[in-house]
Amino acid sequence: MNIVNDIENIIFEKATIKDIDEIINLYAERMIWFKENGIKQWSKYLSNHPKEQFIQAIEKRNYYILKKDNEIIAGFEISTQSDSWNDNKSNAYYLYKVVSKVGYKNIGNKIFKIAKKITKEKGKDYLRIECLSSNKKLNELYAKHGFEYVKEGKSYYNYTLREYKVNK
């Protein structure tokens, strides 16, 4: 799938292995930005999500990128697998590893729109996402985009599980 937004000249496509270093750099830059802005999130993101995870997502054709002027400005994974939801019976996609390049505004809006479209086209009932329970701003953003609160979970951190019902 290749979507081009002519107004903003943004291209959407599946990532390839040649994109891996640029993708990892997006996360590294965002981690620094979070730290510099006093946001207590992602301090160990690339330790918790090593390069091999990204390579596997790319090889499974589950990792997507947005490009502008041949530069990757965002990335995300859509998967049918989730340890957090602990629910293998639902007809759902799970949105992971959402990142945008520092300095680009409102890219998340485009990611959510694309992910919802993919979910619908593939006949899934839900698009699911999770985030730190303590990140009120991100929880509010997800709610604004139609991701309804489902429940809380806990692993090595407390998280909120949200889902978007594709066919409301």
Q: How are the secondary structure elements laid out?
A:
Layout: E1 3-5, E2 10-14, H1 20-36, H2 45-48, H3 51-59, E3 63-68, E4 71-79, E5 92-100, H4 107-121, E6 126-132, H5 136-144, E7 148-154, E8 158-165
Parallel strand pairs: 5-6
Antiparallel strand pairs: 1-2, 2-3, 3-4, 4-5, 6-8, 7-8
**End-to-end gap:** 25 Å
Structure summary, number of beta strands: 8
Structural class: alpha+beta
Report the average pLDDT across residues.
Answer: 89
- Discrete helix count: 5
Largest sheet: 8 strands, mixed
Q: What is the H-and-E element order?
A: EEHHHEEEHEHEE
> What share of the residues does DSSP label as strand, in percent?
25-35%
Cα-atom radius of gyration: 15 Å
Spatial strand order of the main sheet: 1-2-3-4-5-6-8-7
Rough shape?
Answer: globular
Indicate the percent of residues in helices: 25-40%
Runs in which pLDDT lies below 50 for 5 or more consecutive residues are: 1-7
What brief labels describe this structure?
168 residues; single chain; alpha+beta; 5 helices; 8 strands; eight-stranded mixed beta sheet; 32% strand; disordered N terminus
Tell me what you see in this structure.
With 168 residues, the chain is an alpha+beta fold. It is built from five helices and eight strands, in the order ββαααβββαβαββ. Strands 1-2-3-4-5-6-8-7 form an eight-stranded mixed beta sheet. Strand 5, helix 4 (107-121) and strand 6 (126-132) form a beta-alpha-beta unit. The two termini are 25 Å apart. Residues 1-7 have low confidence and may be disordered.
